[in-house]
Design a protein that fits this description.
Number of strands: 7
Shape: globular
Number of helices: 5
Helix content: 40-55%
Radius of gyration: 15 Å
Order of helices and strands: EHHHEEEHEHEE
Structural class: alpha+beta
Distance between the termini: 26 Å
Strand content: 25-35%
């Protein structure tokens, strides 16, 4: 399978990411955090406006495409002051899971870290997202701590922080 990773640069790219987010989040997270929180988080963190704002604030978004179409995305946040890189988002459509697109995104991020001399990757993952936790552990991440963050409207992100040396 040919995998293509491209930076999100245009409004059309942002619209593709927002559409992917809606499809992925609705199908994957509704059973974990409920429909109301999925809808809230999509609006707050994955809408066209939210993504545009995040890019303006320094997050880097990338689309991953298979041979046919965009099938996932990632967002990273360089933190040169602390010599770390945060994986803010790493998602693929359920129809392409197991085909190497997530691994391709992770390798891309790891290579970016190496080229920028950043030795540590970190991320947050919902404590009940067992599939993702297992995937990250398989790729060398370990759980460092538990966090619970109030994100407004009575919703919380109940997560693990996971880290990996690159």
């Amino acid at each position: 399978m040919t995998v293509d990773i491209t930076p999100v640069q245009t409004q059309e790219d942002i619209d593709v990411v927002a559409a992917l987010a809606e499809e992925i989040w609705t199908s994957h997270y509704t059973s974990i955090i409920g429909k109301s929180q999925v809808e809230y988080m999509l609006g707050k963190f994955q809408s066209r406006q939210a993504i545009t704002s995040q890019i303006s604030d320094g997050q880097e978004y990338y689309l991953v495409s298979d041979e046919i179409q965009p099938a996932g995305y990632t967002a990273i946040v360089p933190d040169s002051d602390n010599n770390k890189m945060k994986i803010s988002k790493l998602y693929t459509l359920s129809s392409v899971r197991g085909k190497g697109l997530g691994q391709a995104l992770l390798r891309y991020i790891e290579n970016k870290c190496k080229s920028e001399n950043i030795p540590m990757l970190w991320l947050t993952v919902n404590k009940y997202n067992h599939e993702a936790i297992s995937w990250y552990q398989h790729h060398g991440f370990s759980i460092k701590e538990k966090i619970k963050i109030d994100i407004g409207e009575g919703f919380f992100m109940d997560d693990y922080i996971m880290e990996k040396c690159v």
